[in-house]
């Protein structure tokens, strides 16, 4: 590796190998001069990064310019840029476009690929031409924008903060995902099993959900597996509200019906539940109130443990609770609604249904059926 290392800053120029560990990494995206008569803006950006970096560990700066001003291998250059863009925690776009000397055609393409990644910041001098379209999508995607280079760098570093130490394959997990508890819960479980993350690439992020294509060394089998995507989201709390009947099949179960696009007929029948900022029990009580209108005291909930919901695809878990409801509560539930968080597009309808009908008519998915069965069949404490 020929990277330039000064104190806590490591500069990695085009086609040079990145270091094996860092606390944060940034990529300086934007037009590159193709003439020695035109000065590059990147030395000024590097100077700003040196001046402003306050993290505890190493900051790596990817500079897509040849250390000696040569570009002998176009394909290798493109491959290096793609790799290092994906390794970066922040992609700093600075676009001092000059149609004669730095038209920034490649920058337009890179911006289109990265503007909605959650890792981009955008800056351009007020007089730079043909940036209106880029600025439009910066605003539409919530990308911070600045009118001078120093401010653009400052915004990127503010989002990075102190960074986080990562080594080897961990470097491929950007800070925006590394800092998420669902990712850390999954990753810590893998490490406890002795497995090693060799590489990763973010496939998607949508709201609280993310997908990560991972390359793992499987300790128990001494092999590498790299053909899977881990889907993650915050854990959920689910609650089985029930009224015992003469038999198990006669037991009344409170379901909520809600439109969900992946469902065969557009509507899912599920248990009241969801995720939230509190502890699992607090989330369970809040979701029951939100989706059914029933307010329960914490002492009424019985806890049944935690399991993954779809272990071959999603890393998130369901915390299962149950509560026996009264006949008066069932009457109120049957006549209530609709419920849900309308501002978030959620509309739920209460359905009180015997367990036997749930089984026979396949009203719920296998995971929900299993949670209901667990709550109904698990012996009560002391029984």
Automatic annotation (TrEMBL):
This is ADP-ribose pyrophosphatase YjhB (NUDIX family). Transmembrane segments: none annotated. Gene3D superfamilies: 3.40.50.450, Nucleoside Triphosphate Pyrophosphohydrolase. The lineage of its organism: Bacteria, Bacillati, Actinomycetota, Actinomycetes, Streptosporangiales. InterPro entries: Nuc_deoxyri_tr2, NUDIX_hydrolase-like_dom_sf. It comes from the Bacteria. SUPFAM superfamilies: Nudix.
């Amino acid at each position: 590796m020929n990277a330039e290392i000064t104190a806590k800053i490591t500069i990695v120029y085009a086609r040079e190998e990145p270091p094996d560990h860092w606390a944060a990494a940034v990529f300086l995206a934007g037009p590159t001069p193709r003439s020695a008569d035109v000065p590059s803006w990147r030395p000024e950006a590097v100077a700003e990064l040196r001046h402003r970096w306050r993290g505890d560990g190493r900051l790596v700066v990817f500079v897509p310019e040849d250390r000696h001003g040569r570009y002998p291998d176009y394909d290798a250059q493109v491959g290096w840029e793609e790799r290092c863009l994906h390794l970066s925690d922040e992609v700093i776009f600075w676009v001092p476009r000059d149609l004669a000397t730095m038209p920034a055609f490649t920058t337009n393409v890179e911006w289109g690929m990265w503007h909605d990644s959650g890792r981009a910041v955008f800056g351009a001098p007020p007089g730079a031409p043909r940036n209106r379209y880029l600025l439009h999508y910066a605003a539409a995607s919530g990308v911070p924008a600045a009118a001078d280079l120093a401010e653009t760098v400052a915004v990127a570093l503010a989002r990075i903060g102190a960074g986080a130490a990562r080594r080897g394959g961990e470097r491929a997990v950007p800070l925006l995902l590394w800092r998420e508890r669902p990712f850390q819960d999954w990753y810590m479980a893998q490490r406890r099993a002795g497995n090693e993350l060799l590489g990763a690439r973010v496939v998607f992020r949508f709201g609280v959900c993310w997908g990560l294509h991972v390359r793992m060394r499987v300790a128990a089998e001494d092999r590498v597996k790299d053909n899977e995507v881990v889907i993650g989201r915050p854990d959920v709390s689910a609650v089985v509200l029930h009224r015992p009947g003469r038999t198990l099949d006669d037991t009344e179960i409170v379901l909520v019906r809600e439109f969900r696009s992946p469902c065969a007929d557009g509507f899912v029948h599920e248990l009241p539940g969801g995720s939230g900022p509190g502890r699992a029990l607090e989330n369970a009580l809040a979701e029951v109130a939100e989706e059914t209108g029933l307010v329960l005291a914490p002492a009424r909930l019985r806890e049944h443990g935690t399991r993954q919901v779809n272990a071959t695809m999603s890393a998130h878990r369901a915390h299962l609770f149950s509560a026996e409801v009264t006949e008066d509560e069932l009457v109120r539930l049957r006549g209530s609604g609709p419920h849900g968080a309308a501002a978030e597009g959620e509309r739920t309808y209460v359905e009180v249904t015997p367990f036997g009908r749930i089984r026979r008519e396949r009203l719920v998915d296998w995971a929900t059926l299993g949670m209901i069965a667990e709550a109904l069949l698990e012996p009560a404490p002391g029984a």
